[in-house]
Design goal:
By secondary structure, the chain is mainly beta. It folds into 2 domains: 191 residues, no CATH class; 133 residues, Jelly Rolls (Sandwich), CATH 2.60.120. The protein is built from 4 helices and 23 strands. The strands form 5 sheets. Strands 4, 6, 8, 9, 10 and 12 form a 6-stranded antiparallel β-sheet that branches. The longest helix is centred in the middle third of the chain and has 20 residues. The two termini are 22 Å apart. The C terminus is likely disordered.
Length: 348
C-alpha cells in the first residue's frame, strides 16, 4: 500500500514535508470511444455483404499548444465493447484495426471481436500498451459474421495524459518529467506495438471472413490445416491465445521452419483455449522471428461443419532479431501502472 502512495508523493527537504508528484496527477484513467463518421452511436454492423460504417479512434487535440507538440496523448491498455442485439457474450462480428497515418496494421487478418475485446467486467488487457498521439487515427472496420444487423459500441480504456495542464506551469520540473516520459513513448511506439495474429486462410466462398477456418463435418474425422506467416517487417511475441467457434475442436500448433511445437499431441479447445473475456495466458512469452510461419492442424470434435476463429495476442517488435532485447530495454517506458500481476503480465 505504501508503494502505491509512494509514486504520488515525494519528500521536499527544503520544506521538510511531503508534497505531491504533480506530473503523475496529470495522467488520469480514461475511455476512448470511436468517432463514427457514417452514423450515430451505437454503430450498426450490417449483415454481410452490407457495407460497414467507417469508424476511427482519435484522441483529443492539444488545448493551448503548451505541450511541445504532444497534444493530449492517450495510452490504450485494454479493449472493451458491448453488443445490444446479440448480447456481448454472443457477439458475432470481426474487426480489423489499422493505424491510418503510419499505415501500420495491428493484425494480419480480421479477428473475431470476442478474441480481441472484452467487457467492462472482463476487459481484454493488452500485453503491450499503445500510445495514441493527438491527431493520430486508428481505423476500425467491423464485419458481421452471421445473424441480423447488430448495434454495438467499442471502447479503448487506458490513461489520458495532460502535458498542457495549467497546474504544471507552476512546477516546471514536473512538466519536464512528463514530457520526458512522452518522449520515451514516442520512441517506444516506433519499435513495439500490440499485435493479434490469426490464420492467413482466405475462404473461397466470398462470404466466410478471412482468417477464419471451417473444419469439415465429422466428429474425430473432419480435419483442416492452415498457416500464418509472421511477416517480414517484425517479430511476433505471443502472450496467449483465444478462440471462438461453433463447436468443439482439437488442435496442435507447429512452427514450420524449426518444427518446434507447443504440445506433444492435439489438445481440445475446452482444455487449452479461452476467449478475450478469460484468455489463455502462456506461462512464458513465445517469440516467433520475422518471416517464420505457424501451422495449425485442426480436428473437428462435432458432427457438423465447425467455423473457428483463432487468435494469438501479443506484440510486434520491429528490430533485427539480434537487437530485440536491446530494443525492448532501450525503449522501456515506466507506466503509472508499473506493477505486474498474473492477470496483467507487463512486458514493459
Amino acid at each position: 500500500m505504501l508503494r502505491q502512495v509512494d509514486k504520488f508523493l515525494r519528500y521536499n527537504p527544503a520544506h521538510r514535508q511531503f508534497e505531491p508528484v504533480r506530473w503523475r496527477r496529470e495522467i488520469l484513467p480514461s475511455w476512448l470511444t470511436i468517432r463514427d463518421t457514417d452514423s450515430a452511436l451505437p454503430i450498426s454492423v450490417p449483415v454481410s455483404p452490407g457495407t460497414p460504417p467507417l469508424t476511427i479512434f482519435q484522441p483529443y487535440s492539444s488545448v493551448n499548444g503548451a505541450d511541445q507538440g504532444f497534444g493530449t496523448p492517450f495510452e490504450m491498455r485494454s479493449l472493451i465493447f458491448q453488443d445490444d442485439v446479440d448480447g456481448t457474450a454472443a457477439a458475432n462480428f470481426t474487426v480489423m484495426l489499422k493505424e491510418v497515418g503510419e499505415a501500420r496494421e495491428f493484425m494480419n487478418n480480421p479477428v473475431h471481436i470476442r478474441t480481441i475485446a472484452g467487457s467492462g467486467q472482463f476487459p481484454a488487457i493488452l500485453r503491450e500498451p499503445y500510445m495514441f498521439l493527438s491527431q493520430h487515427n486508428v481505423s476500425a472496420k467491423f464485419v458481421k459474421v452471421a445473424g441480423p444487423t447488430t448495434q454495438m459500441r467499442f471502447y479503448a480504456a487506458g490513461a489520458q495524459y495532460y502535458p498542457w495542464s495549467p497546474t504544471l506551469i507552476q512546477y516546471p520540473a514536473d512538466k519536464r518529467e512528463l514530457l520526458k516520459l512522452l518522449s520515451q513513448w514516442m520512441n517506444r511506439r516506433k519499435s513495439v506495438t500490440p499485435f493479434w495474429l490469426t490464420t492467413d486462410n482466405v475462404p473461397q466462398d466470398g462470404l466466410t471472413p478471412p482468417g477464419s477456418v471451417t473444419i469439415p463435418a465429422g466428429a474425430g474425422t473432419g480435419k483442416f490445416q492452415t498457416t500464418a506467416k509472421i511477416g517480414d517487417d517484425g517479430h511476433f511475441e505471443a502472450y496467449g491465445w483465444c478462440a471462438v467457434s461453433t463447436g468443439k475442436f482439437a488442435l496442435d500448433l507447429v512452427e514450420t521452419k524449426t518444427k518446434q511445437t507447443l504440445m506433444n499431441g492435439q489438445v481440445s479447445n475446452v482444455n487449452s483455449v479461452g476467449s478475450s473475456f478469460l484468455p489463455t495466458l502462456f506461462p512464458s512469452p513465445y517469440l516467433i522471428p520475422a518471416g517464420y510461419r505457424l501451422r495449425w492442424n485442426f480436428l473437428n470434435l462435432t458432427a457438423a461443419p465447425n467455423l473457428v476463429f483463432f487468435t494469438l495476442f501479443g506484440r510486434k517488435i520491429y528490430a533485427p532479431i539480434s537487437q530485440v532485447a536491446e530494443t525492448l530495454q532501450r525503449t522501456a517506458v515506466p507506466t503509472p501502472a508499473d506493477s505486474p500481476t498474473m492477470l496483467v503480465p507487463s512486458p514493459l
